[in-house]
Amino acid sequence: MLARLAATLPLIAAACGDNASPTVGATAGSRLALYGYTLDDGTEQAYPYDWYDRGRDEQCVREQWSDGATYCTPFSTAVVYSDASCTAEVARISPTLIVPIKYARVLFASATGSLLSRLRVLGDPIAVTDFYYSLDAGTCTPHAISDSATFRTITDQELTADAFVRIRRLVDGGGDRFAGLRDVGDDGMVVPIGFHDKEVGIDCTAAGFANADTAPCAPLNVAPAAYFTDATCQSPSVSAEYTGSTDDTIELDSGACPRYFAMTQTPATALYDGTPDHCIASSPAGTYYAAGPELELGSVPRTRAPGGTRFAPIELGSPSQHIVDTFVYDAELEVDCAPSQLGRCTPAIVGMVATLFADPQCTVAIQLGYVPPACGVHATHVATDTQLFAIGAAHTAPVYTISTGDICAPALPLPNLELHELGASIGLDQLGTVSYGVLP
Fold it and tell me: Count of CB atoms within 10 A of residue 272's CB?
C-alpha cells in the first residue's frame, strides 16, 4: 500500500464549505465501485481510500488537482529524462509498485506547493541506462541509484480533470459534537471517512483503536512537529511549508502516544532541538510557526454490530451514523482484528519479541515482548515471522543480555517501551482469511 500511495501522493483533505452529506454507509456509485475486504465468513468491509472506476476500467484514489477540486485519480508516475540535458522525457516505473501504471504526472507549481494538472498517457517500453531529473528550472541531476526500474515513452495524449469523477468531503448535518464525515462522488458513491469534531473544529478518525469500548477521535489532517519553541523542548513548532496546505493540526509523535496541537501562523522567535532532558538552542534554515494550545480530543463509542458466523463489524459513534471501524471482532479468537491485503485478519500488534536472559550468567534464555504503553490502541499481541503471542503481564524481574565483548550485562530499558511476559501463541494459520478487491 505504501508503494502505491507513493506513486500518487494523494492529499486526504477536507472540502471547505461542503456539508450535509447523506447519512448512509459505504455505497457504490453509478461509476465508482467500492474496493474492500471480504472475510472468510462473507463479512464485507469497504476500504475508504480505493475505488474502481468502471467507466475507465482502472483503480483510482482520492487526489486534489490544481483546480482545487478532488477527483478519483488513477495511479501515475513522475516524468524523468534519459539524457543529461533533461530534454528527452521518459516515465520511470519503480520496481516496488504493485499496480499498473499507465500515466505520467504533469504538475502545476504554486506558492503553496505542486498539484496535479494533467495526466499523460504512457507509450511503449524503452531501454534507459541512466536517467536524470530536474527539480528546478535549468537544473539536470543524474540519479545515482540503479534499482531495476523500467521505463516507458510518454505520448502526446493528455487527460484533464473532467475525465474523472469528482469527490467531495461532506459533513453530516445536525448531530452532537461528532458529525459524520463522508467522501461523496458526483456519481452517487458514498464512503464514511470519519467525523468532524465541532468542538475542536477538526476532521478526525476514531478508526484503528482496537479492543476498547470507546476510541479517541484523532485528527485526520496533521503536519509533523518540527523544532520546539521553549528551552525544555515541550512546545512544538511547525515548518511554514505546511501552513499553506489543508493540514490543520500539529502532531508531536512521542512514540505510541502522539500529542496534537492547534496550528498557528505566529512566527517562532527561538527554536530548540532535543528532548526535555537534553534540549539545546538551534538555528535551522526556513520559517517556523509556534504551536497553539494542545488539543483535548474527544472519544466516540465502539459498538459490535451483528455480523457473520465469525466476524462482526464494529460501529463507531451512533449506529445511525453508519461509520465502521477498520477492525472487526473475531469471535473465534475473541479479539478485534484488522483485515489486511496480505490475506489475513490480524489482531492488533505492537512492539517486538526479544530473547533475553533471566540470570547474570546469560544461561537461562527467556522470550519477552517489548511493547509501548497503551494509549487507546489496546493491542493484544506481539509477533514474530511465524506466530503471534498474547501480551501478558508486565515483566518486573531483572533481565540480562549479551553485550559487546560477549559480556553478560543488565539489559538497558528501551525508550517508550515496556517489557511484558508472552502469553498464548497463535499460528498464522489460525487467523481468518481475507480477500481484497472490488466489492459487488
Answer: 19
Report residue 12: phi and psi, to 5°. -90, 90
Full residue range of the structural domain in which residue 406 is found: 352-432
> Which residue, of 272, 294, 316, is where some domain finishes?
294
d(CA 220, CA 197): 11
- Which of 81, 83, 82, 58 lies closest to 8 in space, CA to CA? 58
Asked whether residue 361 falls in the same domain as residue 428, the answer is: yes
Q: Which of these, 106, 94, 91, 103, lies nearest to 151 by C-alpha position?
A: 91
Q: Which of 302, 324, 405, 410 is nearest to 360 (CA)?
A: 410
Domain tally, the chain: 2
SS3 content of the chain, % helix, strand, coil (to 5): 5, 50, 45
Query: What's the pTM value of the predicted model, to 2 decimals?
Result: 0.83
Give domain status of residue 246, yes or no: yes
Instruction: For the chain, 440 residues long, give each residue's pLDDT as a single digit of tens.
Output: 323 233 333 333 333 445 666 778 899 999 999 999 999 999 999 999 999 999 999 999 999 999 999 999 999 999 999 999 999 999 999 888 888 999 999 998 766 668 899 999 999 999 988 888 887 767 898 886 667 889 999 999 999 999 999 999 999 987 789 999 999 999 999 999 999 999 999 999 999 889 999 999 999 999 999 999 999 999 999 999 887 667 889 999 866 678 999 999 999 999 999 988 899 999 999 999 999 999 999 999 999 988 668 999 999 999 999 999 999 999 999 999 999 988 999 999 988 999 999 999 999 999 999 998 777 668 899 999 889 999 999 999 999 999 888 899 999 998 888 999 999 999 888 999 999 999 98
DSSP string for residues in 226-291: -SBSSTTS-SBEEEGGGTTSS--EEEE--TTS-EEEEEEEEE-S-EEEEETTEEEEE--SS-EEEE
